[in-house]
Amino acid sequence: MNNTFRLFAAASVLSFVACGEKPQTPATQAPAAPSNALPTGQATPCPTCKVIEITMTSNDKGNFFEPNKVEAHAGDVLRFKVNVGVHNVNFLPDSNAGKANLPPASQMLQLPGQTQDVVLGFGKGHFYFQCDPHAALGMRGHVEVE
User: Fold this and answer.
1) Radius of gyration of the chain (CA)
2) Is 94 part of any domain?
3) Considering Cα of 100, then 70, then 88, then 27, what sign does the dihedral take?
4) pLDDT tens digit sequence for 113-128
5) How many domains are contained in the chain?
6) Could you tell me if residue 22 is inside a domain?
7) Domain region containing 42
8) How confident is the model at residue 110, as a pLDDT?
9) Are 28 and 95 contacting, i.e. CB atoms less than 8 angstroms apart?
């Protein structure tokens, strides 16, 4: 066999194999989490509830949530969205004394546009949250749930 034929045959086989395979996509539905856990991905609020977006940023001005003060209603969703940096969301029990059913700390979010939703289903009142790695730098916020 000549080299041209071998190259043509190899290229044909490779293109056939490449075209026949479909890329695998990750599952879009996460397993159900406990009611007090932060859901993965994005939550759907009740029909009368709203989604409140809070960006998380690290830049030359500091590390901050924007807005860092929010008024909301039970059932609303706080959507924490990474703008720049690596952040998490934590409703610390010691910062929310006497509050029950607080969600656990989220995983670290690293990619711009990545989100973490918190459904406000843990009661009415004033709740404090923070980004753990940047709390000492002032990355804190609070939500008043009516």
Assistant:
1) 23
2) yes
3) positive
4) 999 999 999 899 999 9
5) 1
6) no
7) 36-145
8) 95
9) no
